[in-house]
Amino acid sequence: MKIITRDVPPRAAWTLEQSGIHPLLARLFAARGIASPEELDDALGRLLPPESLAGAREAAVALADAMAAGQRLCIVADYDCDGATACATALRGLRLLGAAQVDYIVPDRVVDGYGLTASIARRVKERGADVLITVDNGIASVDGVRAARTLGMSVIVTDHHLPAVQDGQTVLPQDCIIVNPNQPGCGFESKSMAGVGVMFYVLLALRAELRRRGVFDATSQPRIDSLLPLVALGTVADVVKLDANNRRLVSQGLRRVRAGTMPAGMAALFAVAGRQHAAATSFDFGFALGPRLNAAGRLADMTLGIECLCTDDAARADELARTLDGINRDRKAIEGDMREMAMEIAESMFDESDMPPPAVVVFDPDFHEGVVGIVASRLKDRLHRPTFVFAVSAADGKDHELKGSGRSIPGFHLRDALDLVAKRHPGVLLRFGGHAMAAGCTVDADHIDTFEAALQQVAHEWLDAATLQRRLEADGSLDPAYRRPETVDTLHSVVWGQGFAPPVFCEEVQVMSQRLVGEKHLALKLRHQGEPVDGIWFGHTEPLPERVRIAFRLDADEWQGQRRVRFLLEAAEV
Questions:
Q1: Rounded-to-integer distance, Cα 113 and Cα 63, Å
Q2: In angstroms, rounded to a whole number, what is the distance separating the alpha carbons of residues 374 and 332?
Q3: The pTM of the whole model exceeds 0.85
Q4: Is the Cα torsion angle 281, 282, 288, 290 positive or negative in sign?
Q5: How big is the CA angle at 538 (ends 537 and 539), to the nearest 5 degrees?
Q6: Which residues pair with 74 in a beta bridge?
Q7: pLDDT of 352 over the 80 cut
Q8: What is the DSSP string of 34-97?
Q9: Which tens digit of pLDDT belongs to each residue from 107-122?
Q10: CB of 301 closer than 8 Å to CB of 106
């Protein structure tokens, strides 16, 4: 592990500090590219305007016309947290704006696969829908949109994924309205908006259109900002880049959650996770609420998650949240067993003294396809290699197919790598898609060895020694004056996440004592700049030398009524 200290532009840090920002935050913000306090303004008025999002106005007009005509709307959701929150946002928002007939359908991960398919379009039509709206999917569903149009439905695609590419050309669904910041020709500045954010922007545009039509005026218009807790949850859970616009959406959502203004299902999820909503952070969205919703899509039916987010009945919300919590416990157990087995398979590929191969592909007939993505992520973190984990498809008649999920490292574009494998070995990949850091594919069981060799060849060509060196960016040393619980509170008040990394400090410390706790965590007594401080390294068991350079986050725990700072170790240079 190589710990790299971030550069801090001195002029930017000085400008931020002079504007009244806490000196430590000024340094951290400057290191993350913030040059002026205006970039940190999270007021709703600072959000990018809906009219700058291509297709939003057209979608708003179409929805307003459909609502005026009393047409039936049906939302085609996705089975992850972003898809669930986007669906709940659409359902709540459309009803809030006056839609009388709104339904939804969630594809089954195993039976239907991903996105809008012809069979899903037929099921939507059977429900009597006139307008089909996709959330967090649809941009690559060329055949599904065509089927829906053939059945006589209007189609509005709201998505944030990249369009499909065939023979080097971008291919879009035809004869429909598309709202996606990543479609060709869209000038919307926030290309990293999650699917739930795109749907929220459609609702903003719809409210403006209804206001223009005189349905309500500015003083009586519905407060769709009540949907921002859902938007914040989906944005963080989908691990999209927290650019300025996304940080505003998340910050506004967190502000309402802390005030207790959120759907009953979110409050119930905080309760079953043992988290206090009054002190909520983006960490709670990403590691407490998000996994419980995602577990439903992985092991059961995301309808449970959507119903939890849509109900206004506290008792029903509590029941659903407890069910989701139980499914998540099952997911953890399955994941734990799979992770251990996958790690054993991966480690068998190389000797202990050798480096891992440039890419890792793992398969076992007993793996569960619902958690292959999580296991791939864990292996990628452990080995620092692009990693695919495969399981046998659980769909009827598809047991000859292996469904894989991959996670990558910086410098290796996973979707482009799959595209190259497909071109070099036609027929090996039955289906594939994704983006730079995460992708999925399906291969015939007879071709898994060919796929593994082909992916490793691409990785061998694309990755050099510097890229394969594990690196962690840190924020330099921590002034002892900031080693206080109040500093922890200050840091927790900020929206951190993908592309706006939470603070990690680094410096040399003395290890005074160390011991294992729970058989898999290293508890430490450290001397930091001459003063003692507790530390813990979760999931690490190897002892540290007496003097070592560490990377750590600040945390505060409570003991006998007193809050104390401790260091949460992220890495060590040994």
A1: 27
A2: 10
A3: yes
A4: positive
A5: 115
A6: 103, 132
A7: no
A8: --SGGGG---GGGSPPGGGSTTHHHHHHHHHHHHHTT--EEEE--SSHHHHHHHHHHHHHHHHT
A9: 887 778 778 999 999 9
A10: yes
